[in-house]
Amino acid sequence: MSDIDQRPLFNADGSPADTPFLGPKSPRQERVLAALMTGAPLTNAHVRRIAGAANGPDVVAKLRARGLSAANELITEFVDVTDVDGEVARIGRWRLTDRGQAKVAAWKAGHQPREAA
Question: Which of 3, 17, 22, 56 pairs with 32 at a CA distance of 20 to 30 A?
Answer without folding.
Answer: 17
